[in-house]
Amino acid sequence: MTSPGSFGVRPSAAALTLVPADAGEGHVVLMVSGEVDMATSDDLARALTDLLRQRSPRRLLVDLAGVRFLDSSGIQALVVGAQRACHHGCDLALVNVPKPVRRVLEITGVASLLGLGPSAGDDHRGTVSSPDSTR
User: Fold this and answer.
1) Alpha carbons 127 and 113: distance in angstroms, whole number
2) Most CB contacts within 10 A, which of 12, 24, 43, 118?
3) Do the beta carbons of residue 35 and residue 16 sit within 8 Å?
């Protein structure tokens, strides 16, 4: 992976950090850490949109390993991001999803929409593929 590039590290007042990095072969990783809530979800949504527009990745990996809290506004940012990724012909994947965050996604019924399979024994990855993802 390379350095974060022009996006840099973006901390917000409510302790959310977003660090994008190129992962090679048309893949971009957005490492998310902190709390994704009403105060920070717009930052996440904006970062996803900016990455899709400016880098045009074939695959956007959203690494949630450092996320301590996710509320409904954060869920909305992920769902809208997945829809935008599909529109841009990009596969969006959630990776390293902590158990409490995964549980919130399951309870709200969006886990499968975001490509997360059953939690028992999986590798904590999910993928939302674009309609034409035959790559």
Assistant:
1) 9
2) 43
3) yes
pTM above 0.70, yes or no: yes
Structural tokens at position 52: 């899709």
What pLDDT, in 10s, does the model give residues 40-99? 999 999 999 999 999 999 999 999 999 999 999 999 999 999 999 999 999 999 999 999
User: Among all chains, which residue has been given the structure tokens 């880098």?
Assistant: 55
Residue 2 lies in a domain: no
Residues 6+ apart with CB under 8 A from 121: none
User: How many angstroms separate the CA atoms of 21 and 31, rounded?
Assistant: 8
DSSP H stretches of helix in the chain: 41-55, 72-87, 99-107
Full domain range(s) for residue 72: 16-116+123-128
49 close to 28: Cβ distance less than 8 angstroms: no
The Cα 127–Cα 70 span in angstroms is 19
CATH number at residue 75: 3.30.750.24
